[in-house]
Structures are given as structure tokens and as C-alpha cells.
Amino acid sequence: MNDFRPQAVPTIGWHYDRMALALHWISALLLVLMTGLGWYMMEIEHTPAAKPYFIVHKSVGLIVLALVLWRLWWRSRHPVPQLPSKMPAWQLRAAQLVQVGLYLCMLVLPLAGIAGAIHSKSGLVFFGYSLPRLAAPNHDLAETYFDIHGALVWLLVLLVCVHIAGALKHRFIDRDGVFERMVPGRD
Ligand code: HEM
Hints:
single chain; mainly alpha; 2% strand; Fumarate Reductase Cytochrome B subunit
């Protein structure tokens, strides 16, 4: 197997641990599926067929939020590998800003969905179970939260595109091993 690690980079602290890799790829997959599902259910929103899609979307959304919280907790306890010190300062800053933006979106997006669902007529559900009502239905408030929810999806899409472009730059232009350390089985 090729070792893409540059010689100057120390081995200790260069790789992500298995849990960090698993949480990264599971949450990435679920976010893509949730975005597709969300847009699809908006297409069929006013048909009887939409109900099960809403139930799955709300339920998986709660799981995604739990995963993001777990990921943040894990990250706070396990050192994150550094980026190569030869990277220009503006690129390090941009990478950090995008990461902070991604974490904020991954947190606030499901929270806005939950807030909207809490104030909607159908309320919060987790697969077959209706969760306790935390607030009286309020159509206007629910719509405001759903507008924030829908807008944050576009911000998330934008940040993910920049994040992927950066990863591909590391893989094909810089060839500095940063891309490979997020690929399971490449360490
Ligand atoms: C975790 C990541 C999530 C993603 C990526 C996501 C994505 C989306 C998308 C793309 C839409 C369509 C927005 C539009 O085009 O206007 C949507 C709508 C919706 N989402 Fe989410 N969602 C997530 C979490 C949640 C959670 C946790 C809940 C509630 C428990 C939720 C409840 C809803 C509801 C009820 C709608 C319909 C809004 C409306 O009727 O206008 N979502 N979501």
C-alpha cells in the first residue's frame, strides 16, 4: 500500500482514530440521505404518500443530531491531527472556518427542524412513537423554524462543496497525505 505521508510529518498524531473516521463517514452519508429525503418530501408534501417520509425524516434527523453531539464530545477528548505546517496560513484559517461552519450547521440545522416539528400540528415523532408535546401548535412559528431549516441546508451544501474541494486539492495537487488519513484502511 502506498504511504502518502510526507517525510517531514511526524507519525504520532497524524491519523484520525477509528471512531472519528466512523463518525465522519456515517454522519456524511446520513446528511446526504436526509437532504435528498427532505427535498423529495417537499415535492410530495401535499399528497397522502408524504406522511411516512416525514416520519423517517424526523426520526433519522434525531439520530443525526445525537451522532453530531457524540462526535463533538469525542473530538473534545481525542486530539485532532494537525494539518501540515507548510500549508499557507490563509489555507489553514480557511480550513478551520469551514470546519467550524460545518459543525455549527450540523447542530443548528436539526435543532431548527426539531423546533419546527415541536410547533407543528403533527409534532415530534421517533419512528412509531409520538414524543411528548413540548409546545402548543403554532403555524407561523413552525414555518419560521422550517424556513431557517431550509436555508441552513443550502449553507451546509455550500460548506460541504468547499470542504470536498479542499480535500481533493490535498489529494491531487498537494499530495500531502491529508486526504488519505480520512480514508478508512489507508493508514
Ligand atoms: C439532520 C439533518 C437534517 C437535514 C440534512 C435535513 C434536511 C431537510 C431538507 C433538505 C428539507 C427540505 C427543505 C425545503 O426545501 O424547504 C427538510 C424539511 C423538513 N425537515 Fe429536515 N433535515 C434534517 C433534520 C431534521 C430534523 C431533526 C427534523 C425534526 C425532527 C426535521 C424536520 C423537517 C420537517 C418537518 C421538514 C418539512 C418542513 C416544511 O414543511 O416546510 N429535519 N429537511
